[in-house]
Design a protein that fits this description.
It contains four helices and two strands, in the order E-E-H-H-H-H. By secondary structure, it is mostly helical. It has two domains: 34 residues, no CATH class; 85 residues, no CATH class. The chain has a two-stranded antiparallel sheet.
Length: 123
């Protein structure tokens, strides 16, 4: 196994500095980057990951992204949408609730959609 230097763009399109990526025996980039962390930092990362029920990688990445956005290092694109099953289920339930609320509203115009479109196109 060897290590090679590479330059990649991150998920925000910003160039990352050259880092070492390990390669397995077949020459495939495993994507593993070794960073030495203090025991306190590693413990904090593991505790945060456990509390949020995500991987250590996800916990560290999300914390770094939040800090980078707060300091202006990367642009804010709005609130981050979680990809966990719980986050997706929560968003889906909010959407379902909104659809139910809209569907329960009274119909204020008794015309068919075609009649409404005909009137709009006549203007």
């Amino acid at each position: 196994m060897g290590a090679v230097q590479s330059r990649r763009a991150d998920s925000f399109g910003l160039a990352r500095p050259a880092v070492l990526h390990s390669r397995d025996g077949a020459g495939w980039d495993t994507g593993v980057i070794m960073i030495e962390l203090s025991p306190e930092t590693e413990t904090l990362a593991r505790r945060l990951a456990d509390a949020r029920q995500v991987t250590v990688d996800a916990a560290v990445r999300e914390a770094l992204e939040a800090s980078a956005q707060a300091t202006g290092v990367i642009p804010r694109f709005g609130p981050s949408r979680g990809r966990s099953g719980v986050s997706v289920a929560t968003r889906r339930e909010r959407m379902d609730k909104t659809v139910r609320e809209i569907a329960s509203m009274p119909i204020l115009d008794a015309r068919s959609p075609e009649e409404i479109m005909d009137d709009l196109n006549a203007v």
